[in-house]
Specification:
The complex is a heterodimer of chains A (108) and B (744). Chain A is an alpha/beta fold and 108 residues long. Helices cover 36% and strands 31% of the residues of chain A. Helices cover 48% and strands 19% of the residues of chain B. The chains are: A alpha/beta (108), B alpha+beta (744). Chains A and B meet through helix 1, helix 2 and helix 3 of A and helix 7 and strand 2 of B.
Chain lengths: 108, 744
């Protein structure tokens, strides 16, 4: 799930499928096992089909963890579902999502 | 708690609401029928009752819809919205109530219930779109023509769940609602997704601004629980809905989460108290409020200035002194007041119990509590014995106080399981109406003893047998109007359901004034079916009992209601399984009375301790009439049965020592415990009478399941095991007792 690009020293991560309470624990484990924070993270959410509050919450946590380490977390692509959920929570600014391209056809 | 706990609660609540709605609709219908010739009630009284009924039906539909919205059950929202719209028009007297309208509404209620039942089975979509469509069309034909356009507009608006209107619409001052939410940590695990609440709000109006508050959330992985909810929201919201409607959105989370709703144009103090109540840095929250557009920066400064100049505790007082003067608040308050006064006048008890709030508890937990209290009763009893032995008066006294309290706790906990039979009975109003219509008969159902309480498990299990008996009474019992006229009976048939308590059991009667049972015909049919031999001489009671035999049906025509001959035997088996029995009493041409005797199935009983030799036995106190000494002169033995003269009454009796094969000599003095069950009396002869005690029934093991006359066992305070006598079967044994018949 995570790749550290050795030339740029930037983490790349791609989350797919459902970011919902049913997968929250599993995702959390995957995210927390990677030793993150020492480098910025580019997050690809283009293939996320469904997001609920727990999913948004997890993204907020990630953002907070990176902020604590003074590292940047950028969402580089996002799906309709992500855009919709983040927008609903008024977190577009927090995630800097307004300028992020939206992948079509993946949302349900 | 499982993820679907909230949904289960919703399903249960809907069932209750829909049931109540059905009852109210039927009450309206009855009102319609009698309104022409009603002279007993003044018109005004009628009017008030009607308004309240319609209001209540409206509220039921509204709650079903509102909660469905929270769960994102669009199909239910859409359908109930139609129902609600019509009810609203009814409420505003834009349309008049007709019996066909009630019939349609009843069907709508059925459809809702089907949707809910599907939901309970995990199907979250329209199960019967054709019916939904037909009903919606039917509903719309009732609407006044001028309303139709509005209505379709309202529908399309409510369905408009596209475009998440998040973009800030500019500052409204404080002209919008402000909703402050702090979800409790378990919200997600309980299936309460904050997102669905926000989405539902979008349907009620427009969310102009949202600020997600996540300061409860840790900023490292270690402390974070991915399934806990750390979210809170400050929401600016524009809507024309009432405060009640908006509050209802959060009905399911109100208890655990923090929900604060500030109406438009509220005084600054409302925001101030919000700031002070939420345990958060005031300035930060204030800024959030500004960000939401609920406060202007100037107002925030002003508010913080007021706050710092006043001691904290005075905030609430300011609020009360100045009062909330926003017009919506006043309006909502008046509406609510009007609603509640009307409610009181109609059905005070019901309203009070609803307002008093109910708590849903899993049955297992109650059982566990009752079990523990059972143990408590036992150890209380043993403590009492030890305290008496210790000759310590102070100890004895406090132990006796303790035991009194235990007794009260026991009674209170038993009542937790008890429910009134009324709800079960009321369900039959609809059944009687529908079945009577189908059969072209006129039947009035009257219910008495609806407040008789019995154990919830028993209530659940008698529903089906009762249904069968009621249908049977309608189908075979009550005659068609033509037949009734020919017999000189009133055209309207009477069906009566009655319940009452009798010596530790509950009695349910189903009485009809129909044709009654034809003993000869039953006998002939039984012979034809080979159930009995034609040479058998049977008394009436035994002949009646044949209708419970498997495969027996006297119906000439098999209808889809009854008459297939499956059922009556199943009914009897169900009742017997519950430890009950059915008696039939009938007079040809006059009617039939079915009497169901059922145990209350209490885990703890008040008992009377008796002794035979060294063995203790417990007789349920409810079944005891009196205790007398056995006068050997009064006792006679005839045909292997023993009788005694009890004040010139013949009382059959049985000696426990003989019944249970105890071989020792009889003592010189014996005692008779006179017990009764139903209308029978019998004597149980024992050696000694010890007195009353409370006891916990422990079921006997599988090994002893065939043992007759013993209902269970109990461990007494001193550790001894006492057997609890099962009076009904014991009475049967006394009656049937053959010479030298001994139970081993």
């Amino acid at each position: 799930m995570f790749n550290l690009d050795n030339s740029t020293m930037i983490w790349h991560a791609r989350l797919e499928g459902e970011l919902t309470i049913y997968h929250a624990f599993e995702l959390y484990q995957a995210l927390s096992s990677a030793n993150m924070g020492e480098a910025p993270l580019d997050l690809d959410l283009g293939q996320v089909s469904l997001v609920d509050s727990s999913g948004v919450q997890l993204l907020v946590l990630l953002k907070k963890v990176f902020a604590r380490h003074h590292q940047e977390l950028r969402i580089v692509t996002c799906s309709e579902a992500v855009k919709d959920a983040v927008g609903l929570f008024g977190l577009n600014g927090f995630f800097g999502l307004t300028a992020v391209p939206v992948t079509k056809g993946t949302s349900e | 708690m499982s993820m679907d706990a909230a949904l289960i609660t919703y399903v249960e609540e809907c069932r209750e609401l829909l049931e109540q709605m059905e009852g109210d609709l039927l009450a309206l219908e009855r009102g319609l029928d009698t309104s022409d010739d009603s002279t007993t009630e003044t018109e005004d009284d009628n009017e008030i009752a009607w308004c309240e009924l319609i209001n209540r039906i409206f509220r039921s539909a509204h709650t079903v819809k509102g909660s469905a919205g929270v769960f994102g059950l669009d199909h239910i929202v859409e359908f109930t919205h139609e129902v609600e719209t019509l009810l609203d028009q009814l409420r505003e007297e834009k349309i008049t109530l007709t019996s066909s309208l009630i019939a349609t509404l009843l069907e709508c209620k059925d459809h809702c219930l089907d949707l809910i039942e599907c939901l309970a089975d995990g199907v979250e979509e329209e199960s019967n779109p054709q019916r939904a469509e037909r009903l919606v069309n039917e509903l719309q034909t009732f609407s006044p023509p001028a309303e139709k356009d509005n209505q379709s507009f309202a529908v399309s608006e409510s369905n408009n769940n596209e475009s998440p209107a998040i973009e800030r619409l500019g500052n409204n001052g404080s002209g919008h609602w402000h909703i402050s939410l702090r979800f409790h940590a378990e919200a997600l695990r309980e299936g309460m997704d904050p997102m669905s609440f926000l989405r539902y709000l979008q349907k009620l109006g427009q969310i102009v601004s949202v600020v997600t508050v996540s300061n409860e959330m840790p900023d490292n992985f270690e402390k974070f629980d991915p399934e806990a909810c750390y979210l809170g929201f400050e929401i600016g919201f524009v809507s024309h809905e009432s405060k009640q409607t908006i509050e209802d959105v959060f009905e399911f989370i109100r208890d655990d989460s923090q929900v604060r709703i500030i109406p438009p144009f509220a005084e600054l103090e409302s925001y101030l108290s919000l700031i002070s109540e939420l345990d958060q840095e005031p300035r930060r929250l204030g800024e959030i409020l500004v960000e939401c557009g609920s406060l202007t920066p100037e107002e925030l400064e002003q508010a913080l200035a007021i706050q710092s100049s006043k001691p904290q505790h005075a905030l609430g007082e300011i609020l009360i002194n100045r009062g909330n003067t926003a017009p919506q608040v006043v309006e909502a308050a008046i509406a609510k007041q009007a609603q509640s006064t009307a409610g009181r006048s109609q059905n005070e008890d019901r309203a009070a119990s609803k307002d008093g709030g109910t708590l849903r508890v899993e049955a297992d937990r109650v059982d566990e509590l009752i079990n523990l209290i059972g143990e408590l009763v036992i150890s209380g009893a043993s403590t009492a014995i030890h305290s008496q032995d210790s000759n310590n008066d102070a100890l004895t006294e406090s132990v006796s106080t303790l035991n009194e309290l235990i007794e009260e706790v026991r009674d209170a906990s038993m009542r937790l399981r008890m429910v009134e039979i009324g709800a079960t009975f009321n369900r039959f109003q609809r059944v009687v109406r529908d079945v009577a219509n189908e059969l072209g008969k006129q039947v009035t159902l009257s219910i008495t003893g609806a407040d008789t309480e019995l154990d919830k498990t028993v209530v659940e299990k008698i529903g089906d047998p009762l249904m069968h008996l009621v249908r049977n009474a309608l189908d075979h019992g009550i005659e068609s109007p033509a037949e009734r006229e020919a017999k000189g009976k009133p055209l309207n048939g009477q069906l009566k359901l009655n319940a009452y308590h009798d010596s530790g059991s509950i009695v349910i009667e189903i009485i009809d004034d129909g044709a009654g049972l034809d003993a000869e015909r039953i006998r002939a049919k039984a012979i034809e079916k080979g159930l009995i031999d034609s040479t058998y001489e049977l008394n009436k009671e035994d002949i009646y009992k044949l209708i419970f035999a498997p495969g027996f049906s006297t119906a000439d025509a098999v209808t889809n209601l009854s008459g297939r001959g499956v059922g009556m035997d199943v009914v009897r088996n169900n009742i017997v399984e519950l430890g009950g029995r059915i008696d039939i009493d009938s007079e040809q041409g006059k009617g039939t009375k079915l009497t169901l005797h059922l145990p209350l199935t209490l885990a703890i009983i008040d008992g009377f301790l008796v002794g035979v030799e060294e063995s203790p036995f417990v007789i349920p106190l409810d079944s005891i009439r009196e205790c007398v000494e056995l006068q050997q002169d009064d006792a006679v033995e005839k045909n292997g049965r023993q009788y005694m003269n009890l004040r010139n009454e013949v009382l059959p009796f049985v000696r426990l020592r003989e019944l249970f094969g105890m071989k020792t000599e009889r003592p010189i003095r014996e005692n008779v415990v006179v017990v009764h069950y139903g209308n029978q009396k019998a004597g149980i002869v024992v050696d000694r009478l010890h007195g009353e005690l409370q006891t916990v029934i422990k079921p006997l093991g599988q090994l002893f399941s065939q043992l007759q006359g013993i209902g269970g066992s109990s461990i007494m305070g001193n550790g001894e095991v006492a057997l609890i006598l099962d009076i009904p079967t014991l009475m049967q044994l006394v009656k049937d007792k053959q010479p030298h018949h001994v139970i081993h």
